[in-house]
Every structure is written in C-alpha cells, then in structure tokens.
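Duplicate of #3305? Posting structure anyway:
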C-alpha cells in the first residue's frame, strides 16, 4: 500500500511529538544522530506502507527542521531564489522570487509552533520579544533581516517578515550585468566616491538601496577608516580593512539602556573616521548625519525611503525637524551644504530594480537649495519577455560643485 498525503502529515506529527522531549533535552547529539533516530521511528510507523526514497528523505528533513532548525522557515531560508519571506499568522505564508510574490503551500503546525520559532530567533539574535515589547528588528545568523510583530499588536497572529540578502556580496559589475546601470554611470559614481562627495541613496521599499550601497562601497579607496551605523546589521563592506561596525540597541523592558542611531553618530565622530556610512536614516538622526557631513567627514553615505529625489529633500527636512528645533531656512541650508548627490532607485513594472535618477544638490547665490539632474532613466521599449529596455541618459549638465573632483585630481570627463 502506498502512502497518502494524510499519512505523511500524520507521521510527521507523531514522530515530532515522540522525539520532541528527547531531542530538546539532549544537546550532545549530532545532526546525523538525530536524522538516524528520525529514520528509525519512521520505519517503525510505516512498516506496512510503501514510501519512495525521495519522500522518505523529505519527511526526515522536515521533521529534523522542526526539531533542530526553524521548521518551515528553514527550507525557505535555504532557497537562494527567495528574496523575501512573509508570514501572516501561522496559516498564511508568502514568498517573493524575482520580484513576484506568491503564496507558499505549507503552513505551521499551530500558532504555538510559530511563537516557539519566533522566540528561538529572538534568542539567537540576543533580542527579547513578548506582549510588553511586541516588535523586534534583528539580523539573523545568515545575514537576513527580520521584523516580528506579536499579538495584540498583530491582530491575526505573529507577523514575521524576513528580507534575504545574497551570500555573495553584490558588486557594481553584477549590477551592470543586471541592467541596474551602465558602465558610464558606474565610472562617474566611482569618481564621486573617490572624491568624497556626500551621497544619499533614495528609493521605495524593496528598491535595492542597501544592495546598491554595498556595491558603491567597493569604490572607497583602501587605507580609509570607515564607521558603519545601523539599526540592525545589513551592510557587507567586505573589502574594507579598517572597518568599525556599530549597531543600535532598543530599550529593555524597563525602558532603559537604549543606544540610538543618534548616540552612535555622536560617538563615531570620536573614532577618527574618514567616512561615516549610515545604513538608513529615518528620524531625528538626520540632523546628526548632516552635522557629520558638514564637519570634515566628506564622503559619507546613507540611504533613506523616498519616492523621488525631490521627496528625499522634503523628507530630510522633516526628519531634521524631528531631532532639533531650527528655522526651516537654517535646515535647508544645512541640507544644501551637506548633501552633494542623490541617487534614486526604483522597481519598474517588470520587477527589475534600476537607477532611475542621479541629481546634484547645491546652494544658489542666495543660499537657496537647488537640484539639477545629471542622469535620468529613459524607457526605450519592452522585450517579448516583458523586460523594459532603457538606459540612463546624461542630461549634459556638468557638475556645479567640482572642487572635490579637482582636489582628488579627477575630472568629470574621461
């Protein structure tokens, strides 16, 4: 008699229940020993039923993941093609592949099982999450970024969102091959980074801001001392030797011991950094970032959410107001003095991520903040596959602020 889907579901539950206490209490058993134990119990339960080798191995792996790993999440985390995992309660799981979101066919055994997994992840990230503190942002051991929201804030049960990052660092060469930009623009950006222009990378959620920042960092000359500051670690600046990595810390249950992005920027200034790289600025820390850019730390880079370069400047003003009480004219002058370049990214309707615009930010003769477009994405057609054909077109407007290029011994052309 061949096994049915109902048989497989029942066996997995029974084996897991039978071995749960034994495996959890015994921390000395190796993975191989646990797999052998699962196989032994499975043979006993399926003695009179035919199970193919493939199905048997699948049952073993899924039971093992539920005992020693992250259950259903484990197989998703092992799939390199998945870029986002979205768990909306224990029954509803969605995944993103190549920019497209689809429903995953499996579900957790129960809401309690999902809650156990959440606590397991929190413990591995040295974080705490419960009803009193129901929101958690953390970095997983594989480098993935995870956000968790628990009831009663999450009405339909625990919400888990995992952003996956490639194990191989993204390079500018790969971005060029993917069509995110071309060699001419990459060469121009290299000059801006080497000449220590202050750069903001803007874009919507999932537009690839962090990925692009990682790639852009490969242009930073060797010998510089870089300090990175993040809420939860995502940056992978693997080619920089003199690197200091700082990560913010949330307050504990008593509301104490918080270390904010603002705190980290202030202390980073005492570390003798050549540049400061902030993973994402989203609040009053924007003021401290501008101060750093304006006090001898040229070449600093950060990312922020915005729908366009113009919106980026408006958001920056709003964020500064959150951190300090200054007249809007003074804030705009600070922004104009600090920020040199905005690189705006976006996801097109074909789900590809592209550089859509590069703008220069400057102050005019009256001290008013102005921008000019240096490159802009122009759509030229659509392939049969649905992929958009287009390129970044130079606007033939030379840089107004050329002093940094000249000091670095570079020219805009050639």
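Output from current build:
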């Amino acid at each position: 008699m061949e096994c049915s889907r109902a048989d497989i579901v029942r066996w997995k539950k029974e084996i897991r229940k039978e071995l749960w206490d034994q495996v959890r209490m015994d921390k000395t058993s190796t993975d191989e020993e646990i797999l052998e134990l699962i196989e032994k119990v499975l043979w006993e339960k399926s003695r009179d039923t035919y199970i193919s080798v493939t199905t048997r191995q699948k049952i073993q792996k899924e039971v093992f993941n539920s005992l020693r790993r992250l259950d259903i999440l484990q197989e998703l985390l092992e799939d390199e093609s998945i870029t986002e995992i979205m768990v909306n309660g224990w029954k509803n799981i969605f995944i993103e592949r190549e920019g497209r979101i689809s429903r995953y066919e499996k579900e957790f055994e129960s809401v309690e099982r999902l809650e156990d997994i959440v606590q397991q992840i929190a413990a591995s990230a040295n974080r705490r999450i419960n009803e009193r503190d129901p929101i958690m942002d953390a970095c997983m051991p594989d480098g993935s970024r995870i956000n968790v929201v628990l009831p009663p804030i999450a009405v339909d049960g625990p919400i888990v969102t995992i952003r996956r990052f490639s194990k191989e660092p993204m390079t500018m060469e790969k971005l060029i091959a993917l069509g995110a930009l071309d060699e001419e623009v990459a060469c121009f950006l290299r000059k801006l980074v080497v000449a220590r222009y202050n750069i903001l990378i803007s874009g919507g959620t999932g537009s690839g801001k962090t990925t692009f920042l990682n790639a852009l960092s490969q242009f930073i000359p060797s010998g510089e001392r870089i300090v990175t500051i993040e809420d939860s670690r995502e940056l992978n600046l693997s080619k920089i030797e003199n690197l200091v990595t700082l990560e913010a810390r949330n307050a504990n249950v008593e509301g104490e011991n918080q270390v904010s992005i603002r705190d980290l920027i202030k202390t980073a200034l005492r570390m003798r950094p050549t540049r400061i790289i902030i993973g994402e600025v989203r609040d009053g820390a924007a003021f401290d970032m501008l101060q750093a850019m304006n006090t001898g730390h040229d070449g600093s880079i950060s990312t922020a959410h915005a729908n366009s370069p113009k919106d980026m400047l408006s958001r920056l003003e709003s964020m500064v107001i959150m951190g300090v009480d200054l007249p809007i004219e003074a804030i705009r002058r600070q922004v104009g003095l600090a920020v040199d370049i905005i690189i705006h990214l976006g996801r097109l309707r074909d789900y590809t991520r592209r550089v859509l615009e590069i703008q220069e930010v400057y102050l005019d003769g009256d001290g008013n903040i102005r921008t000019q477009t240096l490159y802009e994405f122009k759509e030229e057609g659509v392939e049969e596959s649905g992929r958009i054909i287009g390129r970044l077109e130079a606007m033939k407007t030379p840089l107004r602020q050329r002093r940094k290029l000249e000091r670095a011994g570079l020219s805009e052309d050639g």
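Confirmed duplicate; merging threads. The mean pLDDT is 88. The chain is about 35% helix and 25% strand.
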